[in-house]
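Minutes, project huddle
Topic: does the predicted pose make sense with phosphoenolpyruvate bound?
PN asked that the exact inputs be recorded in the minutes so nobody has to dig through chat later. Recorded below.
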Amino acid sequence: QPTRTPLIAGNWKLNNNHLEAIALVQKLAFSLTDADHDTAEVVVLPPFTSLRSVQTLVDGDKLRIGYGAQDISAHDKGAYTGEVSGPMLAKLGCAYALAGHSERREYHHEDDAVVNAKVKAAFAADITPILCLGEGLDVRKAGGQVSHTLAQLDGALKDVTAEQAARLVVAYEPVWAIGTGEVATPEDAQEVCGALRARLAELYSAETAAATRILYGGSVKGDNIAGIMEQADVDGALVGGASLKPEEFVRIARLGR
Ligand code: PEP
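Predicted holo structure (tokens), as shared on screen:
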């Protein structure tokens, strides 16, 4: 069993201008100790407009906080107004980019083919995609959460090589639990995360599956992170609302301790 370093990633969504971003990262840096950083990898995902400021702060003060983008273009360059490419994000030092967040799927009509193109664009730029998957309430009520989420995984990983897949991060985020205060039980999270890992073993290899970090996302807080992290196939969390509150996010980064 390889050790998978827990990953706690804060998705700020459409919040914080670059000055607020600097203040929030400084607060996190002030509170997080070396022991905390040894326990879990901590990453923030600010809006594009803050990435340069965060890069300057993290590099200048040699902070152990990672950062990345909330989205990535499927294209490297060209006539794609409003988009930001993998090479641009890599140049800003982004280690991660979300791909297929449910809000992108819903409000920007990103389907599995688009998400697949974004995952491949991230790998091509040496950025680790955090591939977001998860079912809506109707699917959950019908008991289809595993088949739905596995189908999204298959679609997003089309033509992704084993070598690339070894660096992938997957985030299982049941849509009904995002921003609602409704948390999946640790057992619900484990059911789908375990199924995702089994599918990665089928698609690639047992080694790849064992090395891939699978996160849970959906109303994660300081109070519920410990139970979620106890699950065998949950390796961290993608945190939305609570990542905007420095004290709460630090508690989550400490895995509830
Ligand atoms: C998210 O947007 O990825 C998320 C998990 O949000 P929240 O923690 O607010 O539910």
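Observations noted during the meeting:
- The longest strand covers residues 128-133.
- DSSP finds 13 helices and eight strands in the chain.
No decisions taken; revisit at the next huddle.
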